[in-house]
Amino acid sequence: MSEVYKVAIIGSGPAGMSAASRAAQLRLPHVLLEKTDHLSDTIYKYQKGKHVMATPSQLVLRSDQEFDAGKREDILGRWNKRTEELGVNVKYNAEVKSIKGTGPTIEGSVQKIVTRARDGSTTTTEVQRFAPPYAITLTSGEVVMAEAVVLAIGTQGNPNLMRCPGGDLPHVTYQLDDPYAVLDQHIVVVGTGDAGIENARGLAEDAAQGNVVTILNRSPKSANVRESFATAKEPNAKALVEDDAAGKLTIRYETETKSVEPGWITLNTRDGEERIRCDRIIARIGSAPPRGFVEGCGIEFASNDRLAFPTLSPQFESTAPGIFVIGALAGYPLIKHCMNQGYDVIEFINGNADLKPADEPLLEAKFAGLPGRRSVAEWLELLRTNIAILNGMTTLQLREFMLDSDARFYKAGETIFEKNDPGSSLFAIADGSVHVRIDPNDPSKVVSIEKGSIFGEVGLISGRRRGATVVAASDCICVEISRNAALKLQSQVPSARRTIERISTERQLLQMFGSGLTPDDVREVVETAKIMSVRAGDAIITEGADDKDVFVIRVGSMIVEKVVGGKPVFLSYLPAGSYVGEMALIDGGQRTATVRAAIKSEVIKIDGEAFARVLAAKPALLERARKDMEARRATNAFVESKKDGFSGVVDLYSEQAKFLVSQGLGEATDVLLIDERLCVGCDNCEKACADSHDGLSRLDREAGKSFAHLHVPTSCRHCEHPHCMADCPPNAIHRGPDGEVFINDTCIGCGNCQRNCPYGVIRMDKVPPKKPSLLSWLFFGSGPGPGEPPYKWSKKNTKYTGDPVQDDKLDRKKAIKCDMCAGIEGGPSCVRACPTGAAIRVSPDEFLTVARLENEGA
C-alpha cells in the first residue's frame, strides 16, 4: 500500500498554497496536488502587470507565506521562493479525477443529490459516503492516500457562460492573459466585478494600443460607486469611474447583452436597443462551484441553487468527514481570507481546536453592544437561523457579510428611523418585533413586522427617503445591512434575493389593493408572481392579445396606447405604484390597449388565474377593481367615439403626449410647462425664481422645446431616479419630503451633475455674496434697493480685492437647479408670478390623461 499522508491539499491557489505551507512548517506528512505545472493557476492567469490588492485592509494575515499588494509577477515570485524554502511537497501535473473514502461505510449514508440545471431541469444521483482515509485518484491513474483532504480548487474552472444568441462565437472569451497583446480593437467587457474592471482598464491603459473599450454594468449609475459596482473592490470601482471620466474607456450602465454577431454586439440599454462595433468580447460574469465533482465526494451543498456553496462547519469541514473546503469554493474569494483559511484548517487538522478565525476580533466588536453573553459563532448561528434572508448563507459567507453590516439592539418604544429620514439600508429582525406607523398622527395605527422578516426595503429599491416611522414594538435585535451589502447579498445568494423580492412584492400588493387583504389572502399570488425588467419602449400588454395577467409597476413608468383609425393614440400615463391588466381578467375578451415602458422599468407580473381567485374570495377588492376598470373603459369609449368627430384633436393630443414623454415626463415627478397661447413673454417667472434664490434663476423660459402650443422650458423634472445624483463626490444632491431634488451647500462645483443630466437643466454659476439687510440699505446704502435685482447688484458691486482666499471665493461656482421653492410659502415662485396662468407645474400622472383630450375637444 502507498504512503498515507496526514493531509492532501488539492489546488495550489492562495488557500491551498497557504495550507501546504503551514503543513510544511509543522512538519506534517502532506502533499500539494496541482493540475498545472506551476503554483496558483488563478493568479498565474491574471493579466500581465496586474496590480493585486490585499483587502480587507483591517484583516490580519495569518500565513507562512507573505502577501502584500503588488504586481502579479512579484507576488508569484515571492510565493514560489517561499514554497521552496519551506520544503512544501508539491506534485505538479496532478489533476484529481475522484475522491473516495476507503474506511467503514457511514451508517445511513446513501445520499440522494438533486442537481438543478440552468433551464430548471433536475437530475438525481445517489452517492455512498465512506469514512477516511481517502483514495485520491488522478487522471494519470495514480492513487494518493490521505487521512484528511483539503479542497482548495476554487471556481474559476467553471465560468458562467454567456447565454444570448451568438454567445458561443469564437471571439467570445472568458479570460485575458496579456492586455498589451490586444491592439486596435473594439472590445466589450461584460461584467463589472474585479476581474472585468481590471481587464477593461488594462486594455485601455495605453492610448497607443488603439483599443476602444466598453464595459457593461447591469446596475444603474450611482453617486456611491459601491452601489453601482457591488461585487468589486472600491478602489477598483473608483479607478474605473476615473478612467471613464478621462475618456480612456466607456462604462455603459443599466446595459446587458442581447445578441452577438461577428463584428457587432446588440445591447439592451435603459433607453432601448443599440448595436455597436465589437471585435472581441471578454465575459467576466462569475463562476459556479464544480458541483458534480464536489458532490461526487459525498459533500452536500447549502441548497439546490446552482450558485450555492458546500455546507461547512466553522472549522471548514464538509458533510464528508475528513474533507475540508476552503477558499473561493467555500464562498470566500478574497486572497487574504483564503490564505487565513489555509493556515487555520491545517492548525485544526493538527489538533489546535481552540484557534479562532482571524476576523474574530472584528466580529466581536460588531456584537459587543448586544445583550446576552454569546460567542461570535453563537451570534452568527442565531442570525442565520432567525433571519430568513440569511438562511441560505454558509458560515464563511455570513462572517464576511457581517463585516459590512451592523447588529443593533433597540429597546421597546425606541425609534429605529423616522418618516422622511434619508437612508437606503435594509433592516432584518433577528429577535423581537417592530411597528410601522402608518398614520403619523395616530401612534395606535401600526403594522407589525415580526422576527425573521425585513423592513426598509422601499429605500433599498427606490433610494428615496423613508416612507414611514418604524419603532421597536419590544426589545429587539436588528441587523442593519448597508445598501452595498444588500446588493451583494442578492447577487451571491439566490435564496436571499427571492426572499427580498417576495416580501417586497407582498407588501406592495397589500398596500396597493388594501380592501382588508392579509398576507394569507395573497400568498398564492405572491408565490406565482415574477419580477420582470422592461426596456424603454417594450410592451407588457399588447392590444388584441388573449392573456389575462395583471401587472404592477414597481420601478419606472408606462404609457397606454390604443389604435384608433389605424393610428396609435396615447391614452394615459402610469407611474410606479400603478397596476394594469385587470380589464381582460374581469370582463374576459382580448386586451383593449397596449401598455409599454416609457423608460426602463420593473414590473411585477401577477398570474391572472391566481388573482382571479383572490377577487372571487374578496368582494370588496372586486368592487374596487371594477371601479378602476370603469374609468379605463370610459376612456376607451370616449376615444372611440371621437375618432370620426375630431380625429385631428385626437392625433394632436397623442403626438403631444409622446413629445412630452420624450422630453423626460416619463421619469419626472414634477415638471414646469408653459402654454404659449397664454404666455406674454414678460419673464416674470425667471425674475421671481431669481429673487427667491439669491439672484440665481433656476429657469430658462426661452430654452427648451415646444410642440403645438405647449413649451417645456429648461427646468428640473425632479426625476424618479435622478441622473444628477450619480457620481456626486460630496453626496450633495438629495430628494426632499415632497419629492423635490435639491443641491445642498456641500456642493464643490465639480460639474458632474451638469454632465449627467440629460435635459440640460443644471448650470454652474458663481455664488453671490450674502445680501445685506433692508436696514443696511436704508441707513448705510449697502445692498440692492427695492426692486433692484440682487444678482445684478452683486455682479456690479462685487470687486476683487487681491486677497487670494477672498478672490477664490468670488470665483467659486456651484451647481444651480430648480428645487421647487422648497421651504417657501405658497409653492413655486415661477407659477405664482405668472400673470396669465401660462406657467403650471404638473405631475405626469395627472397631466397625461384623457381628461385633457376631453377639454381639447369640448
Note down, in words, how this protein is organized.
- The structure is a single chain.
- The protein is of the alpha+beta class.
- It folds into five domains: 4-157 and 288-358, FAD/NAD(P)-binding domain; 172-283, 3-Layer(bba) Sandwich (FAD/NAD(P)-binding domain), CATH 3.50.50; 363-499, Jelly Rolls, CATH 2.60.120.10; 523-652, Jelly Rolls (Sandwich), CATH 2.60.120.10; 663-857, no CATH class.
- The protein contains 27 helices and 43 strands.
- Strands 1, 2, 5, 6, 9, 10 and 19 form a seven-stranded mixed β-sheet that branches. Strands 11-18-12-13-14 form a five-stranded parallel β-sheet, covered by helices on one side. A four-stranded antiparallel β-sheet has the order 20-27-22-25.
Structural features:
metal ion binding; 27 helices; 30% helix; Jelly Rolls; FAD/NAD(P)-binding domain; 858 residues; alpha+beta; disordered C terminus; seven-stranded mixed beta sheet; 5 domains; five-stranded parallel beta sheet
